[in-house]
Amino acid sequence: MMKHVLKTMCLATLLPLTAIAADEMTPWYVGGGVGVNNYEPNCDQKTMKKCGEDEPYAWDIFAGYLFNDYFGVELGYRQLGRAEWVDYSNKLNDVGAKGMSLGGVGFWPFAEDWSLSTEVGLLNYRISNNKQYGSEYYSDSGIAPYIGAGIGYNISENLMLQVKYRRYESLDEDKWKTLAMESNYWGLALSYRFGKQSKPVVTAKDDDGDQVPNNLDQCINTPSKHKVDHHGCTVYKDIEESFNIEAKFANDSAVVKSSAYRDIRKLAVHMKQNPNTKVTISGHASNIGNSQYNMELSEKRAEAVARVLTAEYGIAKNRVSYKGYGDTRPLFKGSSMEANTANRRIEARVFGTKKVPVLK
Asked: CA–CA separation, 80 vs 35, rounded Å?
């Protein structure tokens, strides 16, 4: 019998372990209690002549499941201690009750960390004696109702300590009709509830929807498509640009044609919008005539464009450089009209970094 009881209790206490890892309080709990128990009537039945030395120490273990914060069910095993008496044959008798219990429990929190509890259920008891001093051995079993009440204190979110009282009725020995008892129990119980209390999520105000709350946001109105840093400000990346323009010249001339001003103006606007950039003006000539002369002519053409950029459009001289390459870097080989026209040119290459927002 005891082996079956222990197996049942082990299974009951292992059930909640599947929920230990959950990041919230589970409905499962386990616990145990110790206390003292007093059988009634105490040496007051017709078979009892004199009281003996009682062993009133009682204990229990239990596992429970909460349907909500106020109601649950418990399965347990209880040992209620023993009582002794001398019968009219001067034989020393004793009796003890133990067994499985099943009942409902209720809780009422009335203050922070404090709660009242009630319980009602049935004890599948077995009573027996130790067959001492010549007395006959007897045992019997039955179902006894019980009620209880208690007061508990939450030591932590998982541990609760309770003071408990229980009243058992009809702990009877019906086989020989020698015992008809009730019982009063007082004790302490410590229970452990599995899980962890989830912390409440507080949603802070975030007007621009960038996941940085207003109280930490240093750039309160960032565009919704922009990636932001931990201050709520747009994250930028540096990119390198190359800006090319072409300026046409008449044959053997370093005078910038008015048609080229439109391209130079675009270059100037771009550099003003990106003040950390610099430009290199490169002059090129066709391969007609003397190469040295073409080198000098291309230098003059590059200088003429640079002068327009600084004098006409206000770009600082330290941001503008120029160089002539003559006919050493042709776009097209040969000396046809098309090749000469294409090779007689000015190129402007803008170098530097430009900050652009990183998008989500």
From this structure: 9
Note if the pTM is more than 0.90.
Answer: no
Find the Cα–Cα–Cα–Cα dihedral 336, 339, 342, 347, rounded to 10°: -130
pLDDT at 253: 79
pLDDT category at 4 given cuts 50, 70, 90 is: very low
Q: 3 φ, ψ to 5°?
A: -65, -40
Q: Which residues, other chains included, contact 113 with Cβ-Cβ below 8 Å and sequence gap of 6+?
A: 153, 154
Quote the pLDDT of residue 158: 93
Cα–Cα dist 299/263, whole Å: 19
Rounded-to-10 torsion of CA 333, 338, 343, 349 = -120
CA-based angle 122:127:131, to the nearest 5? 175
Strands (E), 67-203: 71-86, 92-111, 114-128, 139-154, 159-173, 179-195
